[in-house]
Amino acid sequence: MTYTFYKYQGTGNDFILIDNRQLEFCKNNTKTIKLLCNRRFGIGADGLILLEQHDTLDFKMVYYNADGNESSMCGNGGRCIVAFAHFLGIINNSTQFMAVDGEHKALIEDDIIKLKMQNVPEVSLFDTHVFLNTGSPHHVQMETNLAHLNVKKIGSQIRHGEPYNALGANVNFVTKNNESNFSVRTYERGVEDETLSCGTGVTAVAIAMHAIGETEKNLITLETEGGKLQVSFENNNSEYQNIWLIGSANYVFKGEIVC
Ligand SMILES: N[C@@H](CCC[C@H](N)C(=O)O)C(=O)O
Question: Is residue 140 domain-shared with residue 36, that is, in the same domain?
């Protein structure tokens, strides 16, 4: 079968998007999805996302990492699929859609997509790092020399080591620039490399920095290798609520694949 694919990126986290409302895409073929995401033998992407129909909401998002496996929530992918649904004419400037971690609301203002994330009821603090789940599991640790850090090597060791082991976690390294601005580099599980930006990752970083007292702000700017993102939230009795991930999401190109 021939499918039209669309390439989108959100602060350099790039995705193949496919309109699968007819449920024709070979979604259980891990090898094919991995090949499509390969940067030398395929289209090249950090992940592949299917837009499918949902009974009560505007659409459903199905997310696969570049390794071909379906995974947990992707924040940048969530912002990209909203831009894609808008391009397809499925939605206007606001939407409610289903993802693997539940319902999400989103708002569109030009190329800025504001995505509401699930509440975060628990943030685990350790001497060296913070662990929390923002739709995907995230290890967050502060670093003084972010620019020279070997993110792939150290991130991989942490992702595969105790206590994460085979299930793994995404690993975020952070430097504080000021009360409301932090720089972040992320090693992504399922891509098994550093990506230019991770949406659930910067969300985790903003909340972690608040939880450990590095900031009292509730609107944080995160500088990633692929650009700026913003995260806003409320903290009520140690649960983080009303969390929004804000940033650009853009169409790159389209093409055809046969599989
Ligand atoms: N790029 C993502 C996170 C995608 C999921 C992650 N790789 C995992 O498997 O946990 C984002 O923008 O949130």
Answer: no
Binding-site residues for substrate sit at 13, 65, 75-76, 170, 188-189, 199-200
Residue 140 belongs to some domain of the structure: yes
- Domain check: are 151 and 242 in the same one? yes
Chain centroid to Cα 11, Å, comes to 10
User: Which of 70, 71, 231 maximizes ligand 1 atoms within 8 Å of its Cβ, making it the mutation to test the pocket?
Assistant: 71
Atom number in ligand 1 closest to CA 186: 1
- Which pTM was predicted? 0.97
Catalytic residues: 74, 198
Ligand 1 center to 197 CA (angstroms): 10
- Measured in Å, residue 198 CA sits from the centre of ligand 1 at 6
The structural domain count of the chain equals: 2
How does pLDDT run along the chain (259 residues), one tens digit per residue?
A: 899 999 999 999 999 999 999 999 999 999 999 999 999 999 999 999 999 999 999 999 999 999 999 999 999 999 999 999 999 999 999 999 999 999 999 999 999 999 999 999 999 999 999 999 999 999 999 999 999 999 999 999 999 999 999 999 999 999 999 999 999 999 999 999 999 999 999 999 999 999 999 999 999 999 999 999 999 999 998 899 999 999 999 999 999 998 8
Expressed in angstroms and rounded, the spacing between residue 188 Cα and the centre of ligand 1 is: 6
ipTM of this predicted structure? 0.96
Question: Are 46 and 158 in a shared domain?
Answer: no
